[in-house]
Amino acid sequence: MVFSRENPIDAGMKRTDSGGFECYLEYEKTFTMGCVEYIATIGSIVLLIMTFPLSLFWCFKVVQEYERAVIFRLGRLRTGGARGPGIFFIVPCVDSYCKVDLRTVSFDVPPQEALTKDSVTVTVDAVVYYRIQDPLNAVIKVANYSNSTRLLAMTTLRNILGTRNLAEVLSDREAISHAMQTSLDVATDPWGVKVERVEIKDVSLPQQLQRAMATEAEATREARAKVIAAEGEMKASRALKEASDVINQSPAALQLRYLQTLTNISAEKNSTIIFPLPIDLLSYFVNRTSNIEMV
């Protein structure tokens, strides 16, 4: 069965966004020139021959290794895809071309003020790296792919920040960058633009929120310091108790400790002398005083 004068070049099924399937049949577009186009093309060729060899300066063009040329003839895209790198030929007066740079381009996303999921205002700026993957789509399907990508990056950054909490924005920047890169890549794919990388540069918070967070962090550190000091006192008291038990088991250890203390004092050239007075000598006077009071 014949459906059209054009020859089908592709047929099949593909999945839709809603989860279903659809059948498609693509036909090869036949290029037919009108009478005016024939006359203009023939006139340009005649003019080219008459001005030969000076016309060669306008016929041969060169594009660099990192560039491609998209050629239009009387407003229609020429078959064969983008030209380059190297030399290519155009017909003056009827052909026009547009150069497309294939190198990776980076640009700064202006600081975007957005409201997070927990109703906190933050200001975030980022860097986006992209390159042209399909020169034909970059020229035909979008008027200015560079400006369109920049505007889309700003709106995408604000949308993603609105779905994250403040803690996620501050601590999980890699996930935000990856989500933004994926969203941009899907949106710019019909334009022939490939978003390679997105990096979050800085996250700015209001001054009042910064002071509140600093106060909270300081209070947390003070509470932690008090807990650590209390644990140290407890460990020190346990060590002193164990040392007293050891000295109680060996009375000579107390005398050795006294001699060691005297040695340390004398080493510092101190005139102060510490003489320990045994408690046993004072117990006689204490008992006698108590007996007199009872009488």
Describe the structure.
With 295 residues, the chain is an alpha+beta fold. The chain is 47% helix and 25% strand. The chain contains nine helices and ten strands. It has helices at 35-50, 56-59, 135-140, 145-161, 166-171, 173-188, 207-249, 252-267, 279-294; strands at residues 8-15, 21-27, 60-63, 67-73, 76-77, 86-89, 95-101, 105-115, 121-132, 193-204. It has a three-stranded antiparallel sheet with strand order 5-4-7. It has a three-stranded antiparallel sheet with strand order 8-9-10. A two-stranded antiparallel sheet has the order 1-2. Helix 4 (145-161) packs across helix 6 (173-188). The radius of gyration is 43 Å and the shape is rod-shaped. Mean pLDDT is 79; it is low at 1-6.
The averaged pLDDT comes out at 79
Distance between the termini: 138 Å
Q: Number of helix segments?
A: 9
Please state the overall shape, judged from the principal axes of the Cα atoms.
rod-shaped
Which strands sit side by side, in order, in the main sheet?
A: 5-4-7
Roughly how many Å is the radius of gyration?
43 Å
What ranges have pLDDT less than 50 throughout 5 or more consecutive residues? 1-6
* Helix content, binned percent: 40-55%
- Describe the largest sheet: 3 strands, antiparallel
Counting helices, strands and paired strands, the structural category is alpha+beta
Percentage of β-strand residues: 25-35%
Q: Which H/E pattern describes the elements?
A: EEHHEEEEEEEHHHHEHHH
Strand count: 10
